[in-house]
Amino acid sequence: MRVVGPGPGGRVGGVTATTDATVIAEALTVIDRALAQVGSRELVSSAEMSDLLLDLRLLLMSAESGRPAASVGEGSLPA
Fold this sequence. Notes:
Order of helices and strands: HH
Shape: elongated
Structural class: mainly alpha
């Protein structure tokens, strides 16, 4: 968990709900979903893989900055 800046009167501010374990679990979910979608295909476009990698990068960056990630993985690979 991350502590968010000093609160009123110099007290400790709120603690974010995003933990490293949560972000890792979200990233694994994105990877598992993509593997299920591309597992039976012989070819996967570079654009699809770029979208997947960008989604994972967004998740990891959100954990680093402490801000919640936007919805990721929704349009990465066609169903």
